[in-house]
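Re: folding output
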Amino acid sequence: MTNSFSHWDKVYTTKVHEQVSWHQDHATISLDWILEVTQPNDAIIDVGCGVSVLADNLLDEGYSNLALLELSTTALEATQKRLESNLDKVSFYNQNILEFFSKKRFKLWHDRAVFHFLTDANNQQIYLQKLYDYLQQDGFFLLATFATDGPTQCSELDIVQYDVAKITQLLGERFKLIKTTAELHPNPNGGAQKFNYFLLQKQ
């Protein structure tokens, strides 16, 4: 995974935000699962939020303790502007997840396609240690990655594909798999991308 803030700033500066391949007009599986396992006052972090409307959807449901982490300053500023009437309910982190620091601990950690950019095993372990350290006991990890028959690259970067066996082996005994599902995500520019979703609980 590139550590370059400039790479992702270029993506969000040169592309129409609604036309990036991962865009959703309304959060789907992520929103449904978050509503199932959390309460509106629970602390939730969206890692690699981009300009996602997941935060908007959660605010509409009465959530009031959200954190958004994003490498791209451009994307984060666009999201801040969009959510300006709810800034008292949202914290913003313009950080690389591998260097993440916060005084908060979270009930749910959401990642829709950041982790699969970590192609280096050492970086994967740094990420997972951050996840474990900042997730509350019995907290939830909601992860979406490209499926094993999905894309092999995104935004000109290599990715790692995951299925149930691969993700559970990587996470080990510290997390219990609650459920998983597949999604065929329609690309705004045409075609579709195959994602796998995993909901896990810290043990």
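--- second protein (sequence, then structure) ---
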Amino acid sequence: MAEERDPVDRVVAQASRLAGWLAKTSWQAAGRLPGGEAAQRQFRKAEKAVLDQVRKRLDEEGTFTGKLIEAPPAVVDGHVDPVRSAMAELLRLSTELDREQGRHHLFMSIVRQLVPDEARILAALSDGEVYALVHVAGRSTLGGPQRIVLRNASSVGRAAGVMLPDLVPDYVTRLLSLGVVQTGPEDQALSTQYDILLTEDRVRTAETEVRTVHKLSPRYLKRTVKLSTLGTQFWDAARPG
């Protein structure tokens, strides 16, 4: 059995086929050909179906304001381009949403990108606590630039009780890219956290790589991690309960 296609994909495919036929002539000329008027009507119908499906999806996500302006999907070389159409839809929404609705869109996009362990990390940081963070680097005994082999190992994973501790550096890196956490300078008050962090498997493996693969002396660049301003706003809007 063929895999069921997404409703938007189905109507986009239909519109694309019709657009391809119409593009071989012209919109005006097509109307004078046998079956041309019917094709035009079908294209408009498929075009409206795309917008209806987008409206339905946004409504299900709680992001539809009821003010969709019916603009045609982007057609390139006679085919509906889903990527361009999606961008056009975002640009259209940007002219209609107010400040609060824009924040809602942003926070929904962040939620959809998180994995469960990352949600736990944000919960652990939500009380304003600061945690130790370390980059593992190597430098030649003769000096020269450092080579960082591991970024963003952090004690926050242990505090959050994540399911996959070895992936904490990756989780923190992703959260940094989303802008919901930020790093800061070393905090001497976290010396115990730094000591424990340097014993973790991922950090020890990076240290071994520095010594054996890169033939360099390992160095630990100590930092801290906490919620960013955006992260605090996000958590206030997204926290359960």
